[in-house]
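Researcher: Please translate sequence to structure tokens.
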Amino acid sequence: QLVESGGGSVQTGGSLKLSCSSSEYTSRSNCMGWFRQAPGKEREGVATIYTGDSTPYYGDSVKGRFTISQDYVKKTVYLQMSSLKPEDTAMYYCAARGPYCYTKLSVRDFTYWGQGTQVTVS
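Model: Translation complete:
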């Protein structure tokens, strides 16, 4: 089970930190990450992290602005978002797959999904 939190409204250029808590880390959820979906658009990969060694992977649109991290003990993954733009406005979903992360962030590769948390940048 994945539970997101931390969404909200922020002004352009601001920052926001999302959290995703997992009920467990298993071989089926060693790769955890964030995807987002704006109205009328397809869901796209934002960032993923391999929980085994914290190796991150980022989507091109957020490189240099967003940072994914984890607290292994708390089984929680974070997404620190900085320099936010209106085009970052979307529903952000936590997702998990196993046993590894792929370099390419593809929706179809992920098995488990959270309910989402809304991020609005204006």
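Researcher: Any highlights?
Model: The chain has a mean pLDDT of 95.
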